[in-house]
Amino acid sequence: MIQRFRWKFIYISLASLFIVMVVTMGTLLFINYNQSQSEVSRVMTALIKNDGHLTPRNAQPAFGNQDDAINRTFLAGRYNPEAVYQYRYFSVKVNSKQKIQILNDANVYQVTSKQVKQVSKNILKLNKVEGNVVIGQNRYRYRKSKTKLGDNIIVFLNESLIFTRFWLLLRISVALSIVALIIFALILIGVSRRAIKPIVVTYNKQREFITNAGHELKTPLAIISANTEMEEMLGNDSEWLQSTKEQTERLTELINRLIAMARTGETGEVVVGKVNFSEIVKQDGQDFKSIMQKNGLHYDVKVSSNIFVKGEEHSLKEVVNILFDNACKYCDKGGQVSVSLTRGRLGKHAILRVNNTYVDGKGKDYQHFFDRFYRQDESHSSNKSGFGIGLAMARDIVEAFQGKIGVHWKNGMISFVVNLKIVK
Protein backbone atom coordinates (compact mmCIF):
# COMPACT_ATOMS: atom_id res chain seq x y z
CA MET A 1 0.00 0.00 0.00
CA ILE A 2 2.76 2.43 0.93
CA GLN A 3 4.71 1.61 -2.24
CA ARG A 4 1.58 2.11 -4.36
CA PHE A 5 1.08 5.47 -2.70
CA ARG A 6 4.71 6.38 -3.39
CA TRP A 7 4.53 5.49 -7.09
CA LYS A 8 1.19 7.24 -7.42
CA PHE A 9 2.79 10.37 -5.96
CA ILE A 10 5.66 10.08 -8.47
CA TYR A 11 3.29 9.61 -11.42
CA ILE A 12 1.13 12.58 -10.41
CA SER A 13 4.21 14.79 -9.93
CA LEU A 14 5.62 13.79 -13.32
CA ALA A 15 2.24 14.33 -14.96
CA SER A 16 1.97 17.78 -13.38
CA LEU A 17 5.46 18.71 -14.56
CA PHE A 18 4.66 17.37 -18.04
CA ILE A 19 1.49 19.50 -18.24
CA VAL A 20 3.38 22.61 -17.11
CA MET A 21 6.12 21.99 -19.67
CA VAL A 22 3.61 21.33 -22.46
CA VAL A 23 1.75 24.56 -21.68
CA THR A 24 4.97 26.59 -21.37
CA MET A 25 6.75 25.15 -24.40
CA GLY A 26 3.54 25.05 -26.40
CA THR A 27 2.88 28.73 -25.74
CA LEU A 28 6.44 29.63 -26.69
CA LEU A 29 6.25 27.58 -29.90
CA PHE A 30 2.84 29.00 -30.74
CA ILE A 31 4.13 32.56 -30.40
CA ASN A 32 7.25 31.77 -32.42
CA TYR A 33 5.22 30.08 -35.17
CA ASN A 34 2.81 33.00 -35.43
CA GLN A 35 5.72 35.42 -35.52
CA SER A 36 7.25 33.48 -38.41
CA GLN A 37 3.92 33.48 -40.25
CA SER A 38 3.58 37.21 -39.66
CA GLU A 39 7.14 37.83 -40.87
CA VAL A 40 6.47 35.91 -44.10
CA SER A 41 3.32 37.94 -44.68
CA ARG A 42 5.06 41.28 -44.07
CA VAL A 43 7.98 40.45 -46.36
CA MET A 44 5.59 39.31 -49.10
CA THR A 45 3.70 42.60 -48.78
CA ALA A 46 6.96 44.55 -49.07
CA LEU A 47 7.95 42.56 -52.18
CA ILE A 48 4.60 43.19 -53.86
CA LYS A 49 4.74 46.94 -53.14
CA ASN A 50 8.24 47.16 -54.58
CA ASP A 51 7.66 45.04 -57.72
CA GLY A 52 9.56 42.03 -56.44
CA HIS A 53 12.62 43.84 -55.03
CA LEU A 54 13.80 44.42 -51.49
CA THR A 55 16.34 47.04 -50.44
CA PRO A 56 17.38 48.28 -47.01
CA ARG A 57 15.26 51.36 -47.65
CA ASN A 58 12.01 49.86 -48.91
CA ALA A 59 12.03 46.77 -46.63
CA GLN A 60 11.33 48.64 -43.40
CA PRO A 61 7.56 47.83 -43.43
CA ALA A 62 8.47 44.13 -43.32
CA PHE A 63 9.70 44.64 -39.77
CA GLY A 64 6.46 45.97 -38.40
CA ASN A 65 5.46 49.30 -36.96
CA GLN A 66 8.61 50.82 -35.51
CA ASP A 67 6.57 53.45 -33.67
CA ASP A 68 4.97 50.72 -31.54
CA ALA A 69 7.24 50.13 -28.52
CA ILE A 70 5.92 46.62 -27.86
CA ASN A 71 6.30 45.57 -31.49
CA ARG A 72 9.76 47.14 -31.72
CA THR A 73 10.98 45.60 -28.42
CA PHE A 74 9.35 42.16 -28.17
CA LEU A 75 7.77 41.14 -31.48
CA ALA A 76 9.31 42.23 -34.78
CA GLY A 77 12.35 43.79 -33.16
CA ARG A 78 14.15 47.02 -33.98
CA TYR A 79 14.62 47.51 -37.70
CA ASN A 80 18.07 46.66 -39.00
CA PRO A 81 18.59 47.61 -42.69
CA GLU A 82 21.09 44.75 -43.14
CA ALA A 83 18.37 42.22 -42.27
CA VAL A 84 16.92 42.30 -45.78
CA TYR A 85 19.86 40.25 -47.03
CA GLN A 86 18.70 37.21 -44.99
CA TYR A 87 15.68 36.64 -47.24
CA ARG A 88 15.79 34.43 -50.32
CA TYR A 89 13.23 35.34 -52.98
CA PHE A 90 12.60 35.75 -56.69
CA SER A 91 9.85 37.27 -58.79
CA VAL A 92 8.38 37.06 -62.29
CA LYS A 93 6.23 39.34 -64.42
CA VAL A 94 3.54 38.07 -66.77
CA ASN A 95 2.31 40.35 -69.56
CA SER A 96 -1.04 40.25 -71.29
CA LYS A 97 0.24 37.65 -73.74
CA GLN A 98 1.13 35.35 -70.83
CA LYS A 99 4.81 35.75 -71.50
CA ILE A 100 6.85 35.11 -68.37
CA GLN A 101 9.76 37.40 -67.57
CA ILE A 102 12.05 36.72 -64.61
CA LEU A 103 12.60 39.96 -62.73
CA ASN A 104 14.86 38.81 -59.95
CA ASP A 105 16.42 35.41 -59.26
CA ALA A 106 19.80 36.49 -57.92
CA ASN A 107 18.82 35.82 -54.30
CA VAL A 108 18.16 32.08 -54.64
CA TYR A 109 20.46 29.09 -55.00
CA GLN A 110 20.02 26.18 -57.40
CA VAL A 111 16.72 27.40 -58.79
CA THR A 112 16.95 27.38 -62.60
CA SER A 113 15.08 29.62 -65.00
CA LYS A 114 13.30 26.56 -66.34
CA GLN A 115 12.02 25.69 -62.87
CA VAL A 116 10.90 29.27 -62.25
CA LYS A 117 8.91 29.43 -65.51
CA GLN A 118 7.35 26.00 -65.01
CA VAL A 119 6.24 26.82 -61.47
CA SER A 120 4.88 30.18 -62.64
CA LYS A 121 2.84 28.51 -65.40
CA ASN A 122 1.35 26.08 -62.89
CA ILE A 123 0.41 28.93 -60.55
CA LEU A 124 -1.24 30.91 -63.36
CA LYS A 125 -3.52 27.95 -64.00
CA LEU A 126 -4.69 28.03 -60.41
CA ASN A 127 -7.36 30.41 -59.26
CA LYS A 128 -5.43 31.31 -56.12
CA VAL A 129 -3.86 34.61 -55.14
CA GLU A 130 -1.53 33.12 -52.55
CA GLY A 131 -0.21 29.67 -51.69
CA ASN A 132 2.82 27.44 -51.29
CA VAL A 133 5.03 25.49 -53.68
CA VAL A 134 8.03 23.24 -53.13
CA ILE A 135 11.12 23.82 -55.22
CA GLY A 136 14.03 21.50 -54.52
CA GLN A 137 14.46 21.20 -50.76
CA ASN A 138 12.74 24.48 -49.96
CA ARG A 139 9.18 25.58 -49.47
CA TYR A 140 8.24 28.90 -51.10
CA ARG A 141 5.30 31.16 -50.39
CA TYR A 142 3.95 32.90 -53.51
CA ARG A 143 1.57 35.78 -54.00
CA LYS A 144 0.05 37.16 -57.22
CA SER A 145 -0.66 40.83 -57.80
CA LYS A 146 -0.62 43.51 -60.50
CA THR A 147 1.98 46.14 -61.18
CA LYS A 148 1.21 49.83 -61.75
CA LEU A 149 1.28 49.13 -65.50
CA GLY A 150 -1.35 46.38 -65.20
CA ASP A 151 0.94 43.37 -65.67
CA ASN A 152 0.67 40.35 -63.41
CA ILE A 153 3.50 39.84 -60.96
CA ILE A 154 4.25 36.77 -58.86
CA VAL A 155 6.68 36.97 -55.96
CA PHE A 156 8.20 33.92 -54.31
CA LEU A 157 9.69 33.90 -50.79
CA ASN A 158 11.68 31.02 -49.29
CA GLU A 159 9.79 30.48 -46.02
CA SER A 160 11.77 27.35 -45.06
CA LEU A 161 14.63 29.57 -43.88
CA ILE A 162 12.27 31.79 -41.88
CA PHE A 163 10.73 28.78 -40.14
CA THR A 164 14.16 27.28 -39.39
CA ARG A 165 14.12 29.00 -36.00
CA PHE A 166 10.72 27.48 -35.19
CA TRP A 167 11.79 23.93 -36.05
CA LEU A 168 15.05 24.37 -34.12
CA LEU A 169 13.12 25.61 -31.09
CA LEU A 170 10.72 22.67 -31.42
CA ARG A 171 13.55 20.11 -31.46
CA ILE A 172 15.31 21.75 -28.53
CA SER A 173 12.05 21.95 -26.55
CA VAL A 174 11.27 18.26 -27.06
CA ALA A 175 14.83 17.19 -26.17
CA LEU A 176 15.01 19.40 -23.09
CA SER A 177 11.56 18.27 -21.94
CA ILE A 178 12.51 14.60 -22.18
CA VAL A 179 15.80 15.18 -20.35
CA ALA A 180 14.08 17.28 -17.67
CA LEU A 181 11.39 14.63 -17.11
CA ILE A 182 14.00 11.87 -16.79
CA ILE A 183 16.12 13.88 -14.34
CA PHE A 184 13.06 14.91 -12.34
CA ALA A 185 11.85 11.30 -12.24
CA LEU A 186 15.21 10.08 -10.93
CA ILE A 187 15.25 12.81 -8.28
CA LEU A 188 11.67 11.99 -7.26
CA ILE A 189 12.41 8.27 -6.99
CA GLY A 190 15.39 8.97 -4.75
CA VAL A 191 13.76 11.66 -2.62
CA SER A 192 10.38 9.95 -2.28
CA ARG A 193 11.98 6.89 -0.70
CA ARG A 194 13.43 9.05 2.05
CA ALA A 195 10.30 11.19 2.28
CA ILE A 196 7.97 8.27 2.99
CA LYS A 197 10.37 6.50 5.35
CA PRO A 198 8.67 7.93 8.50
CA ILE A 199 5.29 6.88 7.08
CA VAL A 200 6.58 3.35 6.42
CA VAL A 201 7.95 3.09 9.96
CA THR A 202 4.69 4.35 11.48
CA TYR A 203 2.61 2.06 9.26
CA ASN A 204 4.68 -1.00 10.17
CA LYS A 205 4.45 -0.16 13.86
CA GLN A 206 0.69 0.21 13.53
CA ARG A 207 0.37 -3.18 11.85
CA GLU A 208 2.64 -4.75 14.44
CA PHE A 209 0.63 -3.20 17.26
CA ILE A 210 -2.69 -4.43 15.83
CA THR A 211 -1.31 -7.94 15.39
CA ASN A 212 0.29 -8.12 18.85
CA ALA A 213 -2.69 -6.54 20.59
CA GLY A 214 -5.03 -8.90 18.78
CA HIS A 215 -3.11 -11.96 19.93
CA GLU A 216 -2.95 -10.62 23.49
CA LEU A 217 -6.71 -9.97 23.54
CA LYS A 218 -7.49 -13.45 22.28
CA THR A 219 -6.30 -15.04 25.54
CA PRO A 220 -8.72 -13.25 27.95
CA LEU A 221 -11.51 -13.63 25.38
CA ALA A 222 -10.90 -17.36 25.22
CA ILE A 223 -11.11 -17.52 29.02
CA ILE A 224 -14.32 -15.48 29.10
CA SER A 225 -15.80 -17.71 26.41
CA ALA A 226 -14.82 -20.87 28.33
CA ASN A 227 -16.28 -19.49 31.54
CA THR A 228 -19.51 -18.62 29.75
CA GLU A 229 -19.79 -22.12 28.36
CA MET A 230 -19.13 -23.56 31.82
CA GLU A 231 -21.93 -21.44 33.26
CA GLU A 232 -24.24 -22.80 30.58
CA MET A 233 -23.25 -26.37 31.42
CA LEU A 234 -23.98 -25.68 35.10
CA GLY A 235 -27.47 -24.56 34.19
CA ASN A 236 -26.99 -20.90 34.91
CA ASP A 237 -28.29 -19.86 31.53
CA SER A 238 -29.86 -16.40 31.33
CA GLU A 239 -30.33 -13.59 28.83
CA TRP A 240 -27.33 -11.79 30.37
CA LEU A 241 -25.14 -14.85 29.91
CA GLN A 242 -26.35 -15.21 26.33
CA SER A 243 -25.58 -11.53 25.69
CA THR A 244 -22.06 -11.99 27.08
CA LYS A 245 -21.52 -14.96 24.79
CA GLU A 246 -22.73 -13.06 21.72
CA GLN A 247 -20.55 -10.05 22.47
CA THR A 248 -17.53 -12.31 23.08
CA GLU A 249 -18.04 -13.91 19.67
CA ARG A 250 -18.51 -10.47 18.11
CA LEU A 251 -15.30 -9.15 19.69
CA THR A 252 -13.39 -12.27 18.59
CA GLU A 253 -14.58 -11.76 15.01
CA LEU A 254 -13.52 -8.10 15.13
CA ILE A 255 -10.02 -9.01 16.37
CA ASN A 256 -9.63 -11.65 13.66
CA ARG A 257 -10.68 -9.13 11.01
CA LEU A 258 -8.23 -6.53 12.29
CA ILE A 259 -5.35 -9.03 12.30
CA ALA A 260 -6.26 -10.22 8.81
CA MET A 261 -6.40 -6.62 7.55
CA ALA A 262 -2.99 -5.86 9.05
CA ARG A 263 -1.51 -8.92 7.34
CA THR A 264 -2.96 -8.16 3.92
CA GLY A 265 -1.83 -4.53 3.90
CA GLU A 266 1.20 -5.36 1.75
CA THR A 267 1.61 -7.89 -1.07
CA GLY A 268 4.93 -9.05 0.36
CA GLU A 269 3.18 -11.34 2.84
CA VAL A 270 0.86 -12.93 0.30
CA VAL A 271 2.00 -15.61 -2.13
CA VAL A 272 0.46 -14.66 -5.48
CA GLY A 273 -0.27 -17.31 -8.08
CA LYS A 274 -2.78 -18.65 -10.56
CA VAL A 275 -6.17 -19.19 -8.89
CA ASN A 276 -9.42 -20.65 -10.24
CA PHE A 277 -11.71 -17.75 -9.41
CA SER A 278 -14.72 -19.55 -10.90
CA GLU A 279 -14.47 -22.36 -8.34
CA ILE A 280 -14.16 -19.93 -5.43
CA VAL A 281 -17.26 -17.94 -6.44
CA LYS A 282 -19.22 -21.11 -7.24
CA GLN A 283 -18.36 -22.75 -3.91
CA ASP A 284 -19.12 -19.65 -1.83
CA GLY A 285 -22.30 -19.11 -3.79
CA GLN A 286 -23.42 -22.61 -2.80
CA ASP A 287 -22.40 -22.06 0.85
CA PHE A 288 -24.50 -18.90 1.14
CA LYS A 289 -27.56 -20.43 -0.48
CA SER A 290 -29.08 -21.64 2.78
CA ILE A 291 -28.42 -18.30 4.50
CA MET A 292 -30.12 -16.39 1.70
CA GLN A 293 -33.14 -18.71 1.79
CA LYS A 294 -33.34 -18.43 5.57
CA ASN A 295 -33.57 -14.62 5.23
CA GLY A 296 -36.28 -14.93 2.58
CA LEU A 297 -34.17 -13.50 -0.24
CA HIS A 298 -34.35 -14.36 -3.93
CA TYR A 299 -30.89 -15.65 -4.79
CA ASP A 300 -29.28 -16.17 -8.18
CA VAL A 301 -25.68 -17.09 -9.03
CA LYS A 302 -24.22 -17.28 -12.55
CA VAL A 303 -20.55 -18.22 -12.91
CA SER A 304 -18.57 -18.63 -16.12
CA SER A 305 -16.27 -21.62 -15.86
CA ASN A 306 -12.46 -21.75 -15.92
CA ILE A 307 -11.72 -18.12 -15.13
CA PHE A 308 -8.23 -17.99 -13.61
CA VAL A 309 -6.88 -14.83 -12.03
CA LYS A 310 -3.68 -13.63 -10.40
CA GLY A 311 -4.09 -13.80 -6.62
CA GLU A 312 -4.09 -15.99 -3.53
CA GLU A 313 -6.89 -18.47 -2.89
CA HIS A 314 -7.69 -17.77 0.79
CA SER A 315 -7.54 -14.00 0.31
CA LEU A 316 -9.84 -14.09 -2.72
CA LYS A 317 -12.22 -16.36 -0.82
CA GLU A 318 -12.29 -13.75 1.94
CA VAL A 319 -13.21 -11.04 -0.60
CA VAL A 320 -16.07 -13.13 -1.96
CA ASN A 321 -17.29 -13.96 1.57
CA ILE A 322 -17.27 -10.29 2.54
CA LEU A 323 -19.29 -9.26 -0.52
CA PHE A 324 -21.79 -12.12 -0.15
CA ASP A 325 -22.22 -11.45 3.57
CA ASN A 326 -22.63 -7.72 2.93
CA ALA A 327 -25.30 -8.37 0.28
CA CYS A 328 -27.17 -10.71 2.63
CA LYS A 329 -27.11 -8.28 5.57
CA TYR A 330 -28.09 -5.13 3.71
CA CYS A 331 -30.54 -6.49 1.17
CA ASP A 332 -34.11 -5.24 1.56
CA LYS A 333 -36.58 -7.64 3.17
CA GLY A 334 -37.80 -10.09 0.56
CA GLY A 335 -35.39 -8.57 -1.94
CA GLN A 336 -33.06 -10.08 -4.52
CA VAL A 337 -29.36 -10.96 -4.43
CA SER A 338 -27.70 -11.73 -7.76
CA VAL A 339 -24.10 -12.78 -8.36
CA SER A 340 -22.30 -13.07 -11.69
CA LEU A 341 -18.73 -13.84 -12.71
CA THR A 342 -17.94 -13.15 -16.36
CA ARG A 343 -15.06 -12.23 -18.62
CA GLY A 344 -14.61 -8.62 -19.71
CA ARG A 345 -15.27 -7.48 -23.27
CA LEU A 346 -11.71 -8.16 -24.40
CA GLY A 347 -11.41 -11.33 -22.34
CA LYS A 348 -8.51 -9.94 -20.29
CA HIS A 349 -10.31 -9.30 -17.02
CA ALA A 350 -12.60 -11.22 -14.69
CA ILE A 351 -15.65 -9.22 -13.62
CA LEU A 352 -17.40 -10.24 -10.38
CA ARG A 353 -20.70 -8.45 -9.70
CA VAL A 354 -22.61 -8.82 -6.45
CA ASN A 355 -25.95 -7.01 -6.53
CA ASN A 356 -28.68 -6.70 -3.94
CA THR A 357 -31.94 -4.78 -3.59
CA TYR A 358 -31.43 -1.51 -1.75
CA VAL A 359 -34.34 0.84 -2.38
CA ASP A 360 -33.12 3.51 0.06
CA GLY A 361 -29.71 3.74 -1.59
CA LYS A 362 -30.38 6.82 -3.69
CA GLY A 363 -28.21 9.77 -2.70
CA LYS A 364 -25.88 7.81 -0.40
CA ASP A 365 -22.19 8.68 -0.26
CA TYR A 366 -20.71 5.59 -1.90
CA GLN A 367 -17.21 7.08 -2.11
CA HIS A 368 -16.63 6.24 1.57
CA PHE A 369 -18.02 2.68 1.55
CA PHE A 370 -14.49 1.27 1.48
CA ASP A 371 -13.13 3.49 4.27
CA ARG A 372 -12.11 1.67 7.42
CA PHE A 373 -14.74 1.72 10.19
CA TYR A 374 -17.13 3.63 7.96
CA ARG A 375 -20.75 2.89 8.72
CA GLN A 376 -23.70 4.23 6.81
CA ASP A 377 -25.38 4.78 10.17
CA GLU A 378 -22.94 7.25 11.75
CA SER A 379 -24.45 6.70 15.20
CA HIS A 380 -23.39 3.01 15.01
CA SER A 381 -26.78 2.12 16.44
CA SER A 382 -27.88 0.17 13.40
CA ASN A 383 -29.35 -3.25 14.03
CA LYS A 384 -27.14 -4.61 11.26
CA SER A 385 -24.11 -6.51 12.51
CA GLY A 386 -20.65 -5.59 11.33
CA PHE A 387 -17.76 -3.31 12.12
CA GLY A 388 -17.26 -1.22 9.00
CA ILE A 389 -13.97 -2.89 8.08
CA GLY A 390 -15.08 -5.76 5.84
CA LEU A 391 -15.27 -3.71 2.65
CA ALA A 392 -12.04 -1.91 3.54
CA MET A 393 -10.37 -5.30 3.88
CA ALA A 394 -11.83 -6.45 0.54
CA ARG A 395 -10.47 -3.35 -1.15
CA ASP A 396 -6.98 -3.87 0.32
CA ILE A 397 -6.92 -7.49 -0.87
CA VAL A 398 -8.15 -6.66 -4.38
CA GLU A 399 -5.68 -3.80 -4.78
CA ALA A 400 -2.88 -6.03 -3.47
CA PHE A 401 -3.56 -8.24 -6.51
CA GLN A 402 -3.52 -5.16 -8.79
CA GLY A 403 -7.27 -5.28 -9.27
CA LYS A 404 -10.09 -2.78 -8.81
CA ILE A 405 -13.23 -2.78 -6.71
CA GLY A 406 -16.08 -0.29 -6.93
CA VAL A 407 -19.67 0.28 -5.92
CA HIS A 408 -22.62 2.03 -7.55
CA TRP A 409 -26.40 2.24 -7.17
CA LYS A 410 -29.01 2.22 -9.91
CA ASN A 411 -32.74 1.55 -10.08
CA GLY A 412 -33.01 0.29 -6.51
CA MET A 413 -30.01 -2.06 -6.75
CA ILE A 414 -26.58 -1.61 -5.20
CA SER A 415 -23.74 -3.31 -7.08
CA PHE A 416 -20.23 -4.18 -5.96
CA VAL A 417 -17.90 -4.87 -8.88
CA VAL A 418 -14.49 -6.57 -8.64
CA ASN A 419 -12.13 -6.43 -11.63
CA LEU A 420 -9.12 -8.79 -11.69
CA LYS A 421 -6.69 -9.62 -14.48
CA ILE A 422 -7.14 -13.03 -16.09
CA VAL A 423 -4.08 -15.26 -16.44
CA LYS A 424 -3.71 -18.06 -18.92
Automatic annotation (TrEMBL):
Q: What is its main location?
A: membrane
Enumerate the transmembrane spans: 9-31, 166-189
Q: Which domain of life is it from?
A: Bacteria
Residues folding into a coiled coil are none
Question: Is this entry keyworded Ion transport?
Answer: no
This enzyme's EC code(s): 2.7.13.3
Q: Which UniProt keywords apply?
A: Kinase, Membrane, Phosphoprotein, Transferase, Transmembrane, Transmembrane helix, Two-component regulatory system
Compartments in which it is found: Membrane
One annotated GO molecular function is:
kinase activity
Entries under InterPro entries matching the protein:
BphY/WalK/GraS-like, HATPase_C_sf, HATPase_dom, His_kinase_dom, HisK_dim/P_dom, HisK_dim/P_sf
Reactions listed under catalytic activity = ATP + protein L-histidine = ADP + protein N-phospho-L-histidine
- Where is each Histidine kinase domain found? 212-424
Family annotation (PANTHER family): PHOSPHATE REGULON SENSOR PROTEIN PHOR (PTHR45453:SF1)
Protein's name in the database: histidine kinase
Name the source organism. Answer: Lactobacillus colini
